[in-house]
Amino acid sequence: MAMSNDTPTITRDDASKDTEALGLDNATGYRAFRVGSFGFRRDEYFAHITFPSGNHVMSIDAFLRALMRDVAWGFFYGTVNFDHVLGTVNHYGTVTMFAGKFNDAYTQAGRDHEELFDSAALMAIFKEMLADWTNEGFDPFAAPMETGLAWGGKNGANPDAIGRERVTAKRMVGLPGDTPVRTDEIGFPVNRQFADVPQDAPTVEPEPGFENEVSAYNLFAYLSRSDVTWNPSVCSVVGESLFCPTSEEYILPIDHGNDRAEWFLQFSDEIDWDVKDRVTGKPRARVKMKAGDIACMPADIRHTGYSTKRSMLLVWENGSPKIVDLIASGEAPVVPVTF
């Protein structure tokens, strides 16, 4: 498969599978991990990352929230920047893990480092790290006021939180045999910040023989029952067009570097977006989206968002497997419209 982000074509068989879990730290009770020549260990407050040209430190709660998204999203579209140094680039079969690749200071000093991994091998060690480093009571997918603390020594685990299945409807939420509408009965109460959202449902009366083809549901009610934040879930699919609504509160715990354009439709409340150049990280724009606003994030940027009040956002994705190579080759533009 050809790869984006100016990476030469490398087959999956050429990618490294060299990962291992190391011994327990007697002081903290956590395991350390080796991923190629990257090293990962945590203490009571921080994740410590080493690589051949340097080392890096992240607050453990921020690291686990970013790692949770990378795992749950299958490395997502394009680049998942854990912060301004560490991250991954998805090549859809292989994944580059990097330190400083998209940081001007690192690249100019020749201190950046990257390695290519087989996607399945990297996902397996990331899941093992996430399970070992997430303590009982801490949910990396939840808003800060809805979860416990990430700090301290090893204290149990939280497999239910980190093992959630991401919603990926085949056609649409609520259709027979597809992902169900959220209800109290299946463990999805209305979120504390969406208590005023009406829970009425549309009446659907399909003609006989079309019961599996005609459906509708209250999307606002569905989102009001989301138990996670910053987790776009595929709720309807038409060809390669994916509607991925989500509820947002506090901070998007990654800087997402696009490899295709993304449309954002703000359904409720407000989100402030920091938009930067995808490669250098230099600021490009500051965008405030209010209810009813629509914006497109180009394919050559990275972005992170801030939402004080839990808000509803629809992310409209182009799921085409061809679009990445078309953009990388210049055959498709990085923006959908040029004014």
Automatic annotation (TrEMBL):
Domain Hydroquinone 1,2-dioxygenase large subunit N-terminal: 25-167
This protein's UniProt keywords: Dioxygenase, Oxidoreductase
Keyword Oxidoreductase attributed: yes
Organism: Sphingorhabdus lacus
MF terms (GO), sorted A to Z: dioxygenase activity
UniProt-recorded name of the protein: Hydroxyquinol 1,2-dioxygenase
A UniProt-annotated Pfam family: PnpCD_PnpD_N
